[in-house]
Amino acid sequence: MGVRQGSGGQAVIHFRAAGVTLLLVHLLLVGWLTLRPLDVPWMMAANFEPFAGIRADLARGPVEAARRIGGALLLLAPLGVLLPMAGGRVSVPSWVSLLRTVTAGALISLAIELGQTGVPGQVVDVDSLLLNTAGVALAHLLVVPVCRARLRRGGLPGVRGLPRHEAETRLRDEAPGGSTPTITGVGIAP
Q1: How buried is 187 (Cβ within 10 angstroms: 0-12 exposed, 13-18 middle, 19+ buried)?
Q2: Torsion, CA 79, CA 84, CA 88, CA 90, rounded to 10
Q3: For residue range 45-71, what is the model confidence (pLDDT) as tens digits?
Q4: Residue 30 in contact with residue 75, Cβ under 8 Å?
Q5: Residue pair 177/15 in contact by the 8 Å Cβ criterion
Q6: Burial of 107 by CB count in 10 Å (0-12 exposed, 13-18 middle, 19+ buried)?
Q7: E strands along 67-126, which residues?
Q8: C-alpha closest to that of 157 among 143, 172, 147, 167
Q9: pLDDT, tens digit, for every residue of 80-118?
Q10: pTM for the model
Q11: 12 close to 171: Cβ distance less than 8 angstroms
């Protein structure tokens, strides 16, 4: 990505820009797949009962269940990696990152389900919401902690071998605009 040795701030910027770009591409693809009108001969009723659709998929046999449930798990799973990547934060506690990512994934899935209410041929399914959110959580748990640990150990040029606090300070200070200026000796207004 054209990163020079010693330009850790630039590496973070390129990493984040790649995350934002991939996130937008993925969301456009998901929108096209889930919100385009379908020409179907008949429509299933909307499913508002949790796990009813999953039970119905399991009753159809293992191959059909794996295809339908796996597809729902995989649809938004890349968000589990792309959302933290677009955020560009390396030193976030794991549980905070997981909570933010899963919440954002659930809200995106909910927006898709609500958007499907007005699309011909698309059916609202609460199980899709549950499976999409579970896919986001699984992808995050499997990939993000490992990648962040690797980046903290020296995966970014310019911060190799530095203690975590110094590396974070250097990355923040080298970012465009530098660190936030502070004024010392200024009291708090009454």
Answers
A1: exposed
A2: -150
A3: 888 999 999 999 999 999 999 999 999
A4: yes
A5: no
A6: exposed
A7: none
A8: 167
A9: 999 999 988 888 889 999 999 999 999 999 999 999 988
A10: 0.75
A11: yes
